[in-house]
User: Fold this.
Amino acid sequence: MRPHPEPAEHLDEQPLPTPHLRPLRRDQLTRVTVPVLVVVGADDGYTPVSDAEAMHAALPDSTLRVIEGAAHLPNLERPGEFNETLGRFLARVG
Assistant:
């Protein structure tokens, strides 16, 4: 959130867990049977794009969207792009 702090100013300052302590659980992702939208900010330091790409690769039916100019809160940092992405995804799966 450091590159784009404005949307997160209202959030409590809570330390995020170290990313390497969060296992990706690829084995569980391969069993997901519904369409999944994976959205990540290009500048996300907590869930890097490489992690989002790995999730996307492991999920049988997923869409990946990397939002430029956003960090960990793309829905707040770039709401227009986020909402457009979500709308297209929902139209496809709805």
Q: What stands out?
A: The radius of gyration is 14 Å. DSSP finds four helices and two strands in the chain.
